Amino acid sequence: MANHKKIPLRKCVVSQQMLPKKELVRIVKTPNKEIIIDPTGKANGRGAYLRPTLEIYEKAKKSNALERALKTKITNKFYEMLYLEINEGWY
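Given the sequence above, the corresponding structure tokens read:
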């Protein structure tokens, strides 16, 4: 019997799709209430996952899905930073 490694799945807070963790962007509210983009996937705090597409980004901003998932207000400055991360194709 072959040894198959399990691929961790996470749910996109906008599309509600279960996708491999490596295909998603993790947004974290740290214990000191700071909102950051977590490229390592290991930062301490409450996390939410997004598929890194402009369509999902627009829906997230419009529907406040990230705010609900992280239970905090998210600034336009953070959304601009997230847009640049997604648009540059770092994910």
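The first strand starts at residue 9 and ends at 11. Try to locate this feature in the token string yourself.
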